[in-house]
Amino acid sequence: MVKSGKPGFYAVARGRVPGVYTTWDECQAQTAGFAGNKHHKFASLEQAKQYLTEHGVPTGSVNSTSAASSSTPSSSRTLQRGSALRGRTHGSTPYARTQPPAAKTSQDSARSGSSNSQWAALASEVIEDESGWDVVYSDGACKGNGKTGSIAGVGVWWGQNDARNIAERCPGGQTNNRAELIAIVRVLETTPHTKRPLLIKTDSKYSISCFRHWMPKWLKNNFRTASGEPVKNAPLIRYLSALLDLRAREGQKIHLQYIKGHAGHEGNEGADQQANIGATLPSEPERDWEALMSATFASGNSGDAASSQKKAGTAAMSNSELEAYAAGLGDDDELLDELSGA
Q1: In this protein, which residues make up the domain named RNase H type-1 (predicted)?
Q2: H/E stretch holding 40
Q3: How many whole angstroms separate alpha carbon 171 and alpha carbon 152?
Q4: Where in the chain are the domains?
């Protein structure tokens, strides 16, 4: 059985984002509640990569910033994320408890951030062949960032004169990080739900790090930092996480890819221009991220419940039964520990 805290290389062959991880928390984030998950711990990176190869998972290139050549893993770095060129990572619906815990409701689950959020669509490899993908660029801009009187805008760019392009004022607090996150939110809120994979390019290392590096710890600490302070932008981040979860549950691959800003990329420059236009627009009030997150979470769980009911061929559920069923969807740490194979 895989144990937390011990150094090693965790190869996830079947999970939300297949790949090699350097901590149990990261491995658990990809496998907890994922039906039919398959993962194994190894002493070396090469063994882990061989395991993935044997299970048909392309290993791709290891992130150049990681200690890929070392046989001793870092406790905090992810050496490799699963390739987003692979088939859909959410091949099955998450495990559903038939008897949900009485003290936990779907509303409580939404407030704490869905455990499924760690699928995150954050493969570290660059998508070389973008054919078959819908590609969009997102960006945020903030004049006077960190200072009194700052103004921020949100930009989304699909192409020249594309009707889907967005230039909006950042609602609520005016910071660059918030604008970057909200730009991704606006992509997910305005893009139709389809099975076609979606590639979102952003120059925000902060946005990507929220899901690639920090989310597992935030979930364990109830979205508090090591010092006990609330995580900045937590409601917004949880809502974005819920939007990503919903797409994954519906079978859509989403890949967040870092692109260097102001480096001559047409799409990034276009999104930046949109964001700067947005910063000149009238101020917008803060949105109720908690309510939006809860509604998105409930929508996703309702879909899972209906799907499972149809597959089982059972009689129609009452509203109260359906709510109880939805409340049981999600992570089960004890079950994971029992089923995890080392």
Answers
A1: 130-280
A2: strand 38-42
A3: 8
A4: 9-55, 134-299
